[in-house]
Design a protein that fits this description.
Elements: E1 4-19, E2 26-40, E3 43-56, E4 62-65, H1 67-80, E5 96-97
Antiparallel strand pairs: 1-2, 1-5, 2-3, 3-4
Amino acid sequence: MIIFGTKGYLYQLAILTLVCGHCGNPSAHTLRKRVTKFTLFFVPLFPVSTKYATQCTFCGAEQKVTGEQAEQLQAQAAAGGQHGAHGGQQPYGQPYQS
C-alpha cells in the first residue's frame, strides 16, 4: 500500500502599509506565500504549486499577486524598513500549516 497526498504551507513574507483596494483604508497588509507539496508516506517531497497573496488587516480582503509582484513588494518592505524583528519573514523551518 502506498500513501500519498498533498500538504499546504503558508509563509508570511512581509508586512506592508498599503491602501486597500476593497475598503479604501491605508492599513497593514501581509504578503503571504502558499506552497503545496506532494507527500509520500507523510514526507513532503517537492512543491506542486506556489501562490502569493496580500491580505488587508483592516477588512480581511485578500488579493492574489504574481511572483514578480511579490518580489517587488518584498523588496519594497525591506527598503522601507517596514518589517518585524525577523525581517518580516517566518522561519522556513516552522511555517504556518493548513
